[in-house]
Specification:
The protein is of the alpha/beta class. The protein contains six helices and eleven strands. A hairpin with a 3-residue loop joins strand 1 and strand 2. The relative contact order is 0.21.
Amino acid sequence: MGPGASSDPGDEPVRLRRLLPAPGEFSSTEATSDLRLAELAPPGRPYLVLNMISTLDGRATLGGRTAGLGGRADTELFHGLRTQVDAVMIGAGTVRVERYGRIVRDPERRARRRREGLAEDPLACVVSGRLAGLAEAPLLEAPEQRVVILTAADEELPPTAAPVEYVRGRGASGPRGRVDLADALGRLRAEWGVRSILCEGGPTLNADLLSAGLVDELFLSLAPKLLGGEHPLTIVDGPAFPEPVELEPISVVERDGELFMRLQVRRTS
């Protein structure tokens, strides 16, 4: 699922047809309510789910962005999942390209979060190796939005309207390496009380999380589109995994030919 255009929460929620585990019908609001993801958190880190969209031929963007890939149901599910977690994680490149602002802008969705026992605004966790280009992000212009930047850099951004804190940690490749994501997630759990995270990409961050064994579920919208073209950007972008990451379906629902799948990562041990 992708950011896309913001749906009007005053509209009647779209209806979805459940194909798995048992045939049925429910609304997009019902599909993203009472998930209780924090209760699934393993010791020492938050429970982490990816949320992505892909075309039938595997493309994760249209013209460099996710807007236009999915329909209204995808948009409603995308925003609905943001009401279910303590934090939303995004790579710096995705923050810049998708022009991220305040994570939950609509008052009714913030009220949904309160009803779920969560803070009105999820913590925004931005993964940025060197802080490049973040200072101008609309996300940092919202004073209500708490932001934690997971970075390998020693510097700080100039003062911003949003309150910003830092988790600093480098991977094994040294000062220019990627963030030590396992350590960062452990600190988010211990120091910020984060028990559930929704990661919205991008593909490089997805690959790093999967390689480190830090992903628990994948929410995937499969758009009934073919885009073609050479060297497509897929939902996972990086070196091949030593072994395939196996997933098993929890649920599959459908709307206007678009499939919405919730899949759990199989643990080998």
